[in-house]
Design a protein that fits this description.
Pathway: Polyol metabolism; glycerol degradation via glycerol kinase pathway; sn-glycerol 3-phosphate from glycerol: step 1/1
Distance between the termini: 89 Å
Oligomer: single chain
Keywords: ATP-binding, Kinase, Nucleotide-binding, Transferase
Helix content: 25-40%
Pfam family, one: FGGY_N
EC number: 2.7.1.30
Largest sheet: 7 strands, mixed
InterPro entries: ATPase_NBD, Carb_kinase_FGGY_CS, FGGY_C, FGGY_N
Shape: globular
CATH architecture of one domain: 2-Layer Sandwich
Structural class: alpha+beta
Length: 351
């Protein structure tokens, strides 16, 4: 929180504010250079030459080196990064601007827009552990595939609020659009759709911020083994979803940065030197009109989930005693009867 992504160094103003001497902070280095050598063990003398955070490493592992390329990692949550090039793009739509990588001491830093979904794979665990409608994660795919539709059911898993692009902590999870025909298979399908709809919301925000519309989405992470989820994602985004044959793209990205470092140079990360990775592509199979209709209903469901956790009285109703019409009439009637009784009593005394 002391780093300035524009100067690529520690920020003097922030360090002064938090009373942290800048001389005690480590030297900022790039993502791909030799930092030192192993001193002991079987790897003695081997250089340590790659350093990337989890999501940045996945971006490199997916070879998203061009402006406008993006990847989504499907784990407990979802983490979507989009490469925006060497100039940082500040978001107006609820996203974070971050450093993607700097592949060499003399190379320029590349930036990314980042959006996160709190509940992705975690929704599978919730259906398993809390509701008990499935026993394993693979069962979820089978249940959803059996019906092939949510039958108008929409699931917003805002268990602890909504992350990007809303950043709304008061939201809570809801399941709406239920009918007497809705069953656990429809709920399973709605849960998978929820992951895809949340990804679409972030991707829409990225397209608006960067001005570059994504032509395909690179994907990785544990949930990508769910083929129905990947097909749903392509249908809801209306663009192809590409899953590489190498699933551990985070580890691959760190290795790529280490091997390309000056002084190691066991391979090159120049675009012209990169070979195409074998992958599986999921093409959209529904028409855009149907996709937009389902997405619009999802947005409607999200609005229902907003401002659920609030300290205000339920419905903002008047909590005074006169808010109850029958009780109000009773009290007012009693007051008039008392006044009338006193008036009559006074008249009688005067006679």
């Amino acid at each position: 929180m002391l780093f300035n992504i524009h100067t690529m160094d520690w920020d003097p103003e922030l360090c002064k504010y938090f009373d942290i001497p800048m001389e005690i902070l480590p030297k900022v280095r790039s993502s791909s250079e030799i930092y030192g050598l192993m001193k002991s063990g079987p790897l003695t003398g081997v250089p340590i030459s790659g350093c990337l955070g989890d999501q940045s490493a996945a971006l490199v592992g997916q070879m998203c080196f061009k402006d406008g390329q993006a990847k989504n990692t499907y784990g407990t949550g979802c983490f979507l990064l989009k490469n925006v090039g060497t100039k940082p793009v500040m978001s107006d739509h609820g996203l974070l601007t971050t450093v993607a990588y700097k592949l060499g001491r003399d190379k320029p830093a590349c930036y990314a827009l980042e959006g996160s979904v709190a509940i992705a794979g975690a929704v599978v665990r919730w259906l398993k552990d809390n509701l008990g409608i499935i026993q394993t994660s693979t069962e979820l795919e089978k249940l959803a595939a059996d019906v092939g539709t949510s039958y108008g059911c929409y699931f917003v898993p805002a268990f602890s609020g909504l992350y990007a692009p809303y950043w709304e902590p008061s939201a809570r999870g809801i399941i709406c659009g239920l009918t007497q025909f809705t069953n656990r298979s429809h709920l399973a399908f709605a849960a998978l759709e929820a992951v895809c709809f949340q990804t679409r919301e972030i991707l829409d925000a990225m397209n608006q911020d960067s001005g570059i519309h994504l032509s395909q989405l690179q994907v990785d992470g544990g949930m990508t083994s769910n083929r129905l989820l990947m097909q749903l994602q392509a249908d809801i985004l209306c663009i192809p979803v590409v899953k590489p044959s190498m699933p551990e793209t985070t580890a691959l990205g760190a290795a790529m940065a280490a091997g390309a470092a000056e002084g190691v140079s066991v391979w090159s990360l120049n675009p012209e030197d990169l070979t195409e990775v074998t992958s599986e592509k999921f093409e959209p199979q529904i028409n855009p009109e149907e996709s937009e209709l389902r997405y619009a209903r999802w947005k409607k469901a999200v609005q229902r989930a907003m401002n659920w956790e609030t300290t205000e009285p339920s419905g903002g109703m008047d909590t005074s005693i006169f808010s109850s019409v029958p009780l109000g009439f009773y009290i007012l009637g009693s007051m008039f009867m008392l006044i009338g009784a006193k008036y009559i009593a006074g008249q009688c005394e005067s006679e």
